[in-house]
Known about the structure:
735 residues; alpha+beta; Immunoglobulin-like; 8-stranded parallel β-barrel; 6-stranded antiparallel sheet; 16 helices; 38 strands
Amino acid sequence: MNKRLYKLMDWAFIEEVIYSECSHPQDLLGPHAKGQTTLLQAYFPGSDSVVVRWKDRGETGDFCETKMEVADDDGFYAQLLPTKDPGPYTYIVTYEKRQEDGRTLKKKVLRCGDPYRHKDILKESDIRKITEGTCTDASDILGAKPMTLDGEEGTLFAVYAPSAMRISVIGDFNSWDGRIHQMCKRGELGVFELFIPGVREGDRYQFEIKFRNYEIHRSSDPFAAEISADNGFISVVGKASSVSVKPLPVKGINKDTALSIYQADPYKFISGDSSAFVNMSRELSAICQECGYTHVCIGNILSSSVRSTDKTISYFAVDPRLGTGDEFAGLVKTLHDAGVGVVLDWVPSYFALEEGGMYRFDGTGLFEHFDPRQGIAYDIDAGLFNYSSSFVGNFLMSSGFGLVKRFGIDGIRFIGIARMLYLDYSKSEWVPNIYGGNENIDAIAFIKKFNSEIRKKYPGILLIAEDSSLHPGITDPVSADGFGFDYKWNEVFFDDYRNFIGMDPLFRGPNLHCIADAFTYAFVDDYILPFAGKEKTAEVGPISELLPGDKDAVESQIRLSLGYLYTHPGKKLLGDMFDTSYSKILSDLNKLYETEPALRTAESDPECFEWLSNMNEEQCCIAYVRKTDDPEDMLVVIANFSGIEQNFQTGVPYEGKYKEIFTTDDKAYGGTSSVSRTVRKATDKRLDGRTQSISVKIRPLSMIIMKFIPYTEAELEKVIEQRIRNYTPIKKSKK
């Protein structure tokens, strides 16, 4: 090595790079002007020689090939080029035939660009957004972004890991060797970046992270757009989506609009040669159109643990077991073309703990609390997010916003809200908040901020909370100190109903209070009623397995239960057992739900519901009213939970006519009867605290819905005349 070159070398710095403990390799590697020359330094571990091919920008403009000098036998090279600006150049790296780990490796010649030629690529303002917590599109900044820089095609990698000693990009393109592509830390802001020429879409990669305690971990990219199908912790350089999808005008945001949701577990659609998303495209639009559902709620599609599909590994990459991002976008487009909205499950409450994921990402609790009492949910073996971190807020908001931006979905269902709200949720040891209480103040602030911000960007988005707690204000607006959700998942509704309907009909009468008790909380929040959704069927099995009796009795009770769901205040959700095998009754119920204002208007207002009879233990029948401000909208619902036909009489609110418009026992649904054509007039018999009543015959394990029809003026005159005649003596002439 010539003397001038030797004097320019920083040997301590070189040793830092060789030992892979360098966070600012750009200060050593790559081109550095030295007077009228350029000092070029490169590190190729295990190589035998390096030639740099560069273009002389002098008079000739010829390409020059200059052999670099060996500065360290480990593979560190240096050379002075006789120019201030060598422009783009290429390394020609030779690896001679050699023995390694008992294998004979053939001679190899590699041509590559210099990743350290480009410096400070990310904008300072974007980096500060990440660190200050003001970024809702962090995935546009961090992750792997294919691009062209100064004529070179490659990929820019960026990651936030403020406590890491060193981070390297490893992948198929560098034989997974963490010494080769050590990333460059941008000041002390915690962001590492590196543009690697030649890395393209589809290339696999990870981050190799050396902690401050010298441990070395390999982790997937938290912002990866794709994950390898072979290994959930191997990231893939993603590509821009070729499918453009826009959200539908959300039907559920107007509280007086019918909202009927079909819940689909995407992992149940994995079969055959087609992906789950392709299979869903074929099946879901048909199910929704036949049955009349307005929306589909699809389970978590983000890359998740093999042990539990709601424990997310990557918050930006679709699970490759289900298909590609483009295939999911195609599914959303297919459903939108059929007029069906899409709600997607999202888990901002906990994440997978497996090695290679987000847990202890940079050696500290970057995503989770470092204190395991706050950072780990031992009951489900998952990590808990640290919502006090501005980076975690950026990360989660970017994930949620990204689902809407990328796929055009119409709504998000937050999974595990109770675990977010309470510091002591399912914990034997926990840390109270600054006021000594058990509320997670930071999580509450995050939820409110998320819901406020996403409504500004996507005003029509439907926000649903899967919440098993009794925390107040879940569906109140943020402006009124609420959480800003449109609806809350009412799991208690199905639990209470399941316990009741699972009884033998002989014992239901004394337990009718189970039905009435549900109305003590029915109007506390704006609810979605998850009827045998995937969570409950996984927990207790399909509702059909809970019902007593033979096959016909079970089917009757399922139809009765569907009728009860659709006449109960609250938006509707059904699990995948209610597919096209129940299409006729579901189609008719959804039409009634859509067309009858009493069933869909002001469902969270207690004024929309009124009991007529709920204590008739002997007959085991109930009757109630669904109504609006207009008496002509009123519906009377009568349900027979007993196993025998009943002649049932109930009080009614108004004098007038009552016409049956629906029965769950209709032959068209597999029942034994049909809608009665008899129009019943209310009589003067007092019952249930009413001055008027009607009498009906109702089949066992069935429900009927009757429409109130007011008298015409002419009919009313006859009724008045008849009443006067009935109660007024008339003088008779005497002979």
